[in-house]
Design a protein that fits this description.
The protein has helices at residues 14-24, 38-48, 64-74, 89-98, 110-124, and strands at 5-10, 29-35, 52-56, 80-84, 102-105. The N and C termini lie close together (10 Å). The mean pLDDT is 96. It is an alpha/beta fold and 127 residues long. The chain is built from five helices and five strands; from the N terminus they run E-H-E-H-E-H-E-H-E-H. Bound molecules: magnesium ion. Magnesium ion binds next to loops.
């Protein structure tokens, strides 16, 4: 394995962010930044230039899909995986159309998280 992937984790739930970080500990995915809403997500993306971003859809304030659109306008090569919950199927479709590379169904399980991030990284990130 060469260098680690820099990951930005966005979720309005602090417990969810902790769970994701714990799930990625020791893997090739290094959580370098976190954000709790869409606005912070856009700012953090610009500040941290992550290789990959895990982006919650349902958040107070700016939604994940709106944040995605701003991020894709800023960097069309952004690699973003959406985290979707029940009832966000339409938002997932919007996100994929807007340039999200993949999505992960909540509740997040470690195995599925790693599998999807690895597939996405292998397909879209040149190391
Ligand atoms: Mg949420």
């Amino acid at each position: 394995m060469s260098k680690k992937y820099k990951v930005l984790v966005v979720d309005d739930s602090a417990a969810m962010r902790m769970l994701i970080k714990a799930s990625l500990q020791g893997s090739e995915f290094d959580v370098v930044a976190e954000a709790k809403d869409g606005q912070e997500a856009v700012q953090s993306f610009k500040a941290n230039a992550p290789d990959l971003m895990l982006l919650d859809i349902v958040m107070p304030g700016m939604s994940g899909v709106e944040a995605l659109k701003q991020i894709m306008a800023f960097n069309k090569n952004a690699v973003v995986v959406m985290a979707s919950s029940m009832g966000t199927e339409d938002a997932v479709q919007d996100a994929l159309k807007a340039g999200a590379k993949n999505f992960l169904q909540k509740p997040i399980e470690q195995e599925a998280l790693l599998k999807i991030l690895r597939n996405t990284a292998n397909t879209f990130i040149r190391k």
